[in-house]
Amino acid sequence: MLTAKQIDFYRTQGYLVLERQIPEDLIAAARAELAHFIELARGIDESNDVLDLEDSHRPDQPRVRRVKLPHAVSPVFGDLMRSKWILDPVRALIGGSVRLHTSKLNLKSAGYGAAVEWHQDWAFYPHTNDDVLAVGVMLDDVGPENGPLLVYPGSHRGEIFDHHAEGYFCGAMSLEKSGLDPADAVPLTAPAGSISIHHGRTVHGSDLNRSTRDRALLLYEMTAVDAWPLQGSFSEMGTLEDYDTRILCGDATIAPRLEPVPVRLPIPKPPQLGSIYQVQKAMSDRSFDVIDASQREVNAQT
């Protein structure tokens, strides 16, 4: 369980890092599973329901930037999600009844791993209350040079920034227009096996991987069971029966808890839907450099 000091830090700062939280054997199993999925990219030309590929991917040189819904396609990732190593700290922060929102495994391969522009998860899927968070499992050592998650402390207690461009939701925000100073962002660095937790309203992003070391981050996004998605968001409930299958622990309810939280709906939806990497391409005011394909080749060889 978390200490009172750790819980207070999360409440005030909007994030938390727990070093070496996951046992080494579970991290080794997760890495082996990841290697399997990367190999599945060999020979395919484009992204599919499981793999999201880098723009510079080639069938003979597979480059994966995301494994989609890893909990659903791998028992290793599914079991880890339901383990005490993940759920105990989550329960301490948002209560004993927890629902899975989604999962993803984001890869930043050495020399060419793609950036994720500044955003708030809440901009994609506002709920009736903001007991919404993301748990990141570090499968590699994360340092300042290989694309760590960057967060703005305390930003979860402020406004929801504009994530639109050209009249459409683009899943990214402008630091300049938002009045945020790049120098105030904090990198979440820690050894492999550590976890990060950030609030759904915390402003965060990650730079390109400019190093010779990979950085894989397994993300489980979770909500309190009584936090219900708002109509117009990117959240899809399906039937009540389907929705309740996502409950990881605790009791179901049909009584949403309503809190006075700020909301901007992610509408109109972008003309071309896809992963966050695709949606954010509509953002012209980018904070992180974009490395073209030729430069990625050079970086990958140095």
Automatic annotation (TrEMBL):
GO terms for molecular function: 2-oxoglutarate-dependent dioxygenase activity; iron ion binding. It comes from the Bacteria. Keywords: Dioxygenase, Oxidoreductase. Gene3D superfamilies: q2cbj1_9rhob like domain. InterPro entries: Phytyl_CoA_dOase-like. Its cofactor is Fe(2+). It holds the Pfam family PhyH. This is Phytanoyl-CoA dioxygenase family protein. It comes from Denitrobaculum tricleocarpae.
